Amino acid sequence: MESVVFIFSLIDCCALIFLSVYFIITLSDLECDYINARSCCSKLNKWVVPEVIGHAVVTVLMLISLHWFIFLLNLPIATWNIYRFIMVPSGNMGVFDPTEIHNRGQLKSHMKEAMIKLGFHLLCFFMYLYSATTGARLTDLTLSN
Amino acid sequence: MSAPAGLPPRPAGAVAAYPGGPGGSREAAAPQGAAPRCQNGPVQSQMQFPSGYGSHPPNYSAPSGHYSQVPSKAVSSHLDNQYRASYQSPYYSAPAQNVMTPPVGTNVLNTRESQQFYNSSTPPHTVGLTEGPAQGAIPSGSYVYTSAQQSYSAFGDHYNTSVSSSVASQGFPLNSDHYAMPVVSSAMYPNVSYPPAATSSMYGQAFTSQSLPAAGQFKETNTFSSQSTSVPHSLQQHVPVGYNSTLSTISSAQSFQDNLSKSLTGSVAKVNNQVNRGGIDSSQPVHSVSQNVQLTKPGFGAPASSALISSVRTPAPGLSSQPRSSPSITQSPDSALQEALDSSSTTSSASPVLNNYDALEGGGYPETRSVTNSPVPTPPAPQTSKTSKPFGYGYPALQPAYQNTSPPTPVQATNPSHHPGFQHYPQQYPGVNQLSSSLGGLSLQHSQQPEGLRPINLTQDRNILPVSSVPAPVPNLNSDLRKLNCSPDSFRCTLTNIPQTQALLNKAKLPLGLLLHPFRDLTQLPVITSSTIVRCRSCRTYINPFVSFIDQRRWKCNLCYRVNDVPEEFMYNPLTRSYGEPHKRPEVQNSTVEFIASSDYMLRPPQPAVYLFVLDVSHNAVDAGYLTIVCNSLLENLDKLPGDSRTRIGFITFDSTVQFYNLQEGLSQPQMLIVSDIDDIFLPTPDGLLVNLHESKELIKDLLNALPNMFTNTRETHSALGSALQAAFKLMSPTGGRISVFQTQLPSLGAGLLHSREDPNQRSSTKVVQHLGPATDFYKKLALDCSGQQTAVDLFLLSSQYSDLASLACMSKYSAGCIYYYPSFHHSHNPAQAEKLQKDLKRYLTRKIGFEAVMRIRCTKGLSIHTFHGNFFVRSTDLLSLANVNPDAGFAVQMSIEESLTDTSLACFQTALLYTSSKGERRIRVHTLCLPVVNSLADVYAGADVQAVVCLLANMAVDRSVSSSLPDARDALVNAVVDSLSAYMSTASNLQQSMLIAPNSLKLFPLYVLALLKQKAFRTGTSTRLDDRVYAMCQIKSQPLVHLMKMIHPNLYRIDKLIDESTIHVNDRVVPQPPLQKLSAEKLTREGAFLMDCGSNFYIWIGKNCDNNFIKDVLGYPNYASIPQRMTQLPEIDALPSERTRSFISWLRDNRPLSPVLQVIKDENPAKTDFFQHLIEDRTEAAFSYYEFLLHIQQQICK
Asked: Where does the record locate the signal sequence feature (chain A) (predicted)?
């Protein structure tokens, strides 16, 4: 059971890592003028909800499986994701707004955010991996016994 | 004026001056003879005139009254042709003799001007030239060259001697009006044989301006200047024009502006004496030299003819008369350009000699030492040290070569074809640098430093407003760069001294940013057609006056410092038709230029002008009656719509359905097509909805005549604006163009419907004001779609109720459109608004327009832009996408300093606006601004441009109030004042903390911020409708600085005693100049009448006990009681007060694109609240008075 939870988290975490990398690449494309703000934002906005859900699922899963430490670790980032999604002004076209992204250093802060998330997810990835393998070993042990 | 043909050849004519002169000029005859000798090479071909001049002088002295005109005319009209004709072959082959018989009548004004410039520029140079070959004269030549003072002295010299003796004696006064020679006109002043009226002629003015600082010791000139108050204006006009060579002119003018004259006069006087002794001759050879050079031009042009690819054209001026300039000074673009080039070419002949003198003598004079802050080190002799300077002193870079070959003759002998080019560099630059550095030093030490930083005790100093409008601070550059710099009307920086590091900027607590008005109507704009537009290969910067030429073949970018090659075509100068002088090309001589772009700059063929009008015809709209005004304005201006033969036009009307109009050519009458499926809008017919204006003109006129009455009985109250806009977008997307939307209510149906969000009870709340942002992203998305298809949406909101402008404005904001708002519009109940709409429409329909535009702002490496303000869509980091650009749009950007600017002393900014003109030409308008970099906090404060700072802060505050909250934004504004003043006070340690001290440059800062806090956009406590507030915010974002400042801080004048005021002359009109009054009721008296200029409105407030004569003479009513409540025009009464008042008001109006609506307000008029709300220095129930505000700031600082 334990290992199933962690293997699922591992897969989810992989997806989130890929998403973070995708965010970083797209934002840096925008920074380098390879794409324009409109297409960049529409690309990214599409993935904001999946990201929120993906992360929320892991967090909830950890809560359910009573892994308190991992749950508390995930909580701030998940809250931030949801907060950011809810607080989008009514006139904006999503978390990433093409008319604002070049103003007030928003692009940079988005970039920074994506970097932090990437780091966080990498950390989580190894934690899940470790837990999954130790969990698997535990089941192995119980089976062999 | 009399027939030039009958006169002897020009060069000879010029020489005639010498024999005519007194002894001094006879001495000059010797150097003269030598002068041509040094110009061998190409000059050989002109040897005819040197010889002619040896023999002819006696003849010429007789008709001396004519000689100066004829040559001048001949010269410039020839030139005129030369460059207008864009290299017609006849001119290439034209021998020098051609010059003698050009069409004289072309452009008298031009001729005079150019001639004047070119002469006026020459005196200092010629000295060097003439002295060079004639060894005996060397000492005096060196005097003149080495420093600014000496060049003044050259002028002083004119006044003293050459003028009264040689020139005046030759009978010039006879037709003084036509005189081209500055020598002559200046001569007249001391003699006072010119009547004061002569001031209005351009020479008079130009010359006074030049003579003022230099000739301070002459009583005559002083009295003269006091007679004409227009001198400052002539100065301003004058300075940017002749910058190439009229070094002395400009520097003197500049110093005049800096109040330098006093500090200078001492040294001037000294040098004057020196030059007076031996300098008479120096002024004389001017003519001969300059004329020679003119003649040689065709000769130079010819060999290079194969290289001519580019030509320079000048467009017809957009405005007939430029604000502030008397017409005589306003120069046609042609002449301006011509002057620049004429004069520069003139100087070329003297150069090598000059350089030598410069090198030899430069160090000998204390005046020429380099000054603390001036970027030019001004080494006395070796120019080599300047070569590697990273900034715009490029030309000296060429000099080492010259210095090595100091004897001029070998240089010329070796490569005669490059003669003008090579000579040019050294000639111009050593003079400029030395001169300017010494000048810059003076200004720093004597005037500028104290002026910008002079501490002002705000709580005690009550009269801080200047007498007339607040001038833009002049960057502390040396005068040659200053002359080249972009006009502050187009390009302004909040800090004219750029701090070196971000840390320093943070310490100053002032925002760093640019305020741009890039598409401003300009009266003179060099337009360049060239197959290759020279740009930096790495950062794509356009070549500009601040690049440095490392040698003839390479230039160094002033933004990224990359060294680029000069393309072959660029070596040829189309204006002088000479080869090998890339630095004299108009691109390098003007900081504002326009290129005609090649197909490389097009993604598709240039689009035609396409106009689509989307009109609300619901009951509400019909009731307001705007349709009649719009249709009539359109009918009137149909032929004036900018465009060419491809211009297309279309109409859509909407209520709860959308109506299209088929105007296809061949129909007998317009055909209305109604689409009622507003949820899935489609175009009822593929063509015929957007039709060619010229082919279907009759149908269009029929429609416009019919439209106002078509919907008179409508009962439809709904408005399906969103669907109409979607339809409009579909219609426009293949071409792009302009959609003008007229809306009178809240959209209530279909896509983009909105709900009322305003709570009227909250209008005067002092707490949070909600709903400043859009309610839906529909309009934003639509705007971005439009922007992507090069379509701009302009919104005219004419509503009486809340219409959620915050949401609707998005359609214009992000598509680079513009927004007009007419609250409580009604054609008969509110005639003032109706009149305003009419005037706005007239301007709107006829003003210039640029399509499918993009604007890029580049700045020196190390600076970066982080926020943009204005109506556009930021497509990538520094690229603004502007579907349309109009001359009334202003932009602002905020910048940060990412890398320290320690390795450079100049920071440059360049905006390039690429657009398709209404005639289908792809054009690029480039503005370049150059500012010094400083490393001390005091310098940063000294260079603060308070108006720009306030405008940028207003833009930032709008963002803040939308993204955060209004109280936040207000606090931020107050904090901006508190922080910057306390930072200033902590730097100046000797100040007492108990007083509120501001540097002179920021003395108006608290006042302006208080005005902002009382502005509709940011005020709290006073009942303000949400739409009014949002509209004010939109205006702050999109207005250029000049208009925004009037909106923030209106100008108040007392106008019942205009006859006593000082006056200026504009267009033969006498315009009184009443002083600015404080915006306080304390200044209003019941006995007076006051005019308030709020930018878009003029209010005339009539006091109860106002003089009946004024009411009778100006307003046309017998007494105060009989003045009607609604009065929007001043009658034309044939009395002096009326004439003065009207000329003053029309002068104010001329200065702006939108003609403001005038309202006469009596004391008991309900409209008086409009007037009194602008008296921002007074206390209101909800806000501080100015004094209280100062105390509040002081309290905050002390905390």
From this structure: none
Give the model's pLDDT for residue B766.
67
Q: What is the pLDDT of residues B32-70, one digit of tens each?
A: 333 333 333 333 333 333 333 333 433 333 333 333 333
Number of Cβ within 10 Å of residue A84's Cβ equals 13
Share of chain B above pLDDT 70, in %: 61
Instruction: Decide: B487 and B525 in contact? Cβ < 8 Å.
Output: no
Residue B455 confidence (pLDDT): 76
| CA B624/CA B637 separation, integer angstroms | 22
Chain A residues within 8 A of B777 when measuring between CB atoms: 90-93
CB contact B891 to A (< 8 Å) = no
Q: What pairs with residue B794 in β-bridges?
A: B740
Q: What's the rounded Cα separation, in Å, for the pair B647 and B607? A: 9
Residue B986: its pLDDT value, please?
A: 82
Indicate the pTM of the whole model.
Answer: 0.68
Residue B797, pLDDT score: 92
Selection from B213-222, B368-377, B903-912 with the highest mean pLDDT: B903-912
Question: What is residue B659's three-state secondary structure?
Answer: strand
What is the sign of the dihedral through the CA atoms of B153, B154, B155 and B161? positive
Residue among B610, B752, B731 nearest B675 (CA): B731
Beta strands B648-654 and B610-616: pairing type? parallel
CB contact under 8 A, B867 and A92: no
Contact A99 B879 (CB under 8 A): no
CA distance B432 to B1167: 57
Which amino acid is it at B372? T
Quote the pLDDT of residue B148.
Answer: 35
Beta bridge partners of B457: B997
B511 touches chain A (CB under 8 A): no
How open is the CA angle B1004-B1010-B1014, to the nearest 5 degrees? 140
Mean pLDDT over B1114-1119 rounds to: 82
- The answer to whether A36 contacts B875, with C-beta atoms less than 8 Å apart, is yes
Q: Which of B856, B1060, B1044 is nearest to B957 (CA)?
A: B1044
Cα gap B1107→B1105, rounded to integer Å: 6
Judge contact between B630 and B758, C-beta under 8 A.
Answer: no
Give pLDDT tens digits for B236-284: 333 333 333 333 333 333 333 443 333 333 333 343 333 334 333 333 3
Q: Which of B1114, B1091, B1087, B1124 is nearest to B1103 (CA)?
A: B1087
**A37 contact residues in B (CB cutoff 8 A):** 873-876
**Segment B1053-1089, tens digit of pLDDT:** 888 877 767 777 777 777 888 888 888 887 788 888 8
Per residue in B324-361, pLDDT (tens digit) is 333 333 333 333 333 333 333 333 333 333 333 333 33
Burial of B26 (0-12, 13-18, 19+ CB in 10 A): middle
Q: Is there a contact between B866 and A92 if contact means CB atoms under 8 Å apart?
A: no
Query: How long a stretch of residues is chain A?
Result: 145
| Cβ within 8 Å, pair A89-B776 | no
Neighbouring-strand partners of residue B186 = none
pLDDT score at A142: 57
ipTM score of the complex?
Answer: 0.87
* Chain B residues closer than 8 Å to A103 by CB: 866-868, 874, 959
Q: Write out the DSSP string of B779-823.
A: HHHHHHHHHHTTEEEEEEE--SS---HHHHTHHHHTTT--EEE-T
> Do B773 and A89 count as a contact with CB atoms less than 8 A apart?
yes
Q: Which helix (H) or strand (E) holds B219?
A: helix B219-227
Cα(B518)–Cα(B1150) distance, integer angstroms = 20
Interface touch B807/A102, C-beta < 8 Å: no
Residue A113 has a pLDDT of 92
